[in-house]
Every structure is written in structure tokens, then in C-alpha cells.
Amino acid sequence: MVPKGQQLTFLYTDDLPRSVAFYRDVLDLEPVVDQGRAVLFRVNAGAYLGVCDRPDRPRGTDGVMVSFVCDVDPTYAKLTARGVVFEGPPGLQMDGRVYAAFFRDPDGYRLEIQEFRDPAWDALFPAADGTRIYSGAPFEAQAGYARAVVTSDMVEVSGTTGFDPETLTFPEGVEAQCENCFANIARALEQAGASLADLVRVRIFCATREEFQRIKPIIKRHCDAARPANTSIICELDQPTMRVEIEATARRARTAFETA
After folding, report:
1. Which CATH entry fits the domain spanning 7-124: 2.60.120.280, 1.20.1250.20, 3.10.180.10, 3.40.50.150?
2. Highest mean pLDDT, choosing among 97-106, 132-141, 187-196, 233-242
3. Considering only Cβ atoms within 10 Å of each terminal Cβ, which end of the chain, N or C, has fewer?
4. Which sign does the torsion angle of CA 127, 132, 136, 139 carry?
5. Tell me, what's the pLDDT at 258?
6. CATH T-level assignment (fold) for domain 132-259
């Protein structure tokens, strides 16, 4: 998904081709999303500028709109409880590709909270260098670490256990835990603009030799496409319920704007 915490500023224009040419050719900003009547440019790490042409384009303080990428429903509930008056409840925009709600700041400027609902956009919003990615698992807060860190064109994923984020438990079997390890790693990589096919190294920590033999086929299935370097270790893990932990490094594709 498009990483939360992104900030978007929209500027309205009467001549979209002219504005696109200015930001692209004069300011050297790379267009990353073309929505038809709006084009989004990446400005820097985590910040984007959109130029938008629409027949009912607003004027005055409505000539600027700031959008925040977040979990819309809980943010809507929190802000409503704090007295923010929205124009309406969250709903789908842009032919169902954006889920959003709108409100005003004290000076009358229009603000938006939104989620991107089009999976095809994920690769267009790669996490920036230095981005920390969190899964929400309690261990990250307890020990003060991130699930993954983006460094230049690499993604470093912390040792990831078979914790199930849906049930908040560890499955009993090492096979199920191993599947969860790779699912949790894949989820973190997706947020950073990479996938299991981009793996360059994995480290497997397994509680017993017998259990390691049982998860070999699972490791092969998830790693075969990338054929990463692999180090496998038999060791005691943090909790008796943990049977396997996997650390990973992947290479992510960088956008032309990042490499300029």
C-alpha cells in the first residue's frame, strides 16, 4: 500500500498541460501519477505536489488543498471527537481509487485525509531513503526498533517471527510460523517498493534441526525466484512459542527522480 504519513499539496490550475510542463520541465519534478485531471509530482521524501484542473475548480482559499495519507476511518473518528466538522463522512473518490474525507482549517483552507485504494499506485510511491516501516506488532514498541528501514536502494527487514497480526498469536506449527514470517516480510517490503523477488540475503533462525528440515521447502518456495544469499542458524529464540525467525535484505527499484 502507499505508505502512511505521506503529505500531498494540490494546486488548482486553468491550464493543466501548461502547469505540468512547468513543474516537469522547469522545476525538474518527476510526475509519478497521472489521474487525468490531476498530475502528482514527487517533491522530496514523503511530500508530493499535485496540479489539478476541474470544471468546478474552487477559488480563493479553495485554490490550495493539503492532503494527508493516513488510516482514514480512525483519523476521521479522532478528529470528529476533537470537534472537527467534516464536509461529509469518508467516501470513495477518483472512480474508487481514493478513500477520503474533507474539512477546513481555521482560515478556511480545505484539508483532506485519504487512503489510496489502487494497488497499481503502490510502486509509484516508494518509501524514501531513511523511511522506517512498522507492522504494529507489540515487540517493535517494546524493544525500540522498526520492522524495516529503507537505506538508499536497499530495504533491511528486522528479524521477523511467525506472529500472526490477525490473531495476535503464534501458530503452533513451525510450518505455519514460517509462512507468517514470509508474509510479514513481504508486507514490509511492499511498503518500501520491493518484494520477495528482490531479496538479496536471508538469515534463518530456527529452534531445532528437525524443525528446520520441515521448513526447507517453504523457504525454497518463497526464495527460489530471487535466490538470495542464505545463512541458517539453529538457536534458542526469545520465547518458547517462537519456532523460527527470518531476517531479510532486498534491493528496491529507485525512481528516476531519486537518482537524478
Report:
1. 3.10.180.10
2. 233-242
3. C
4. positive
5. 41
6. 60s Ribosomal Protein L30; Chain: A; (3.30.1330)
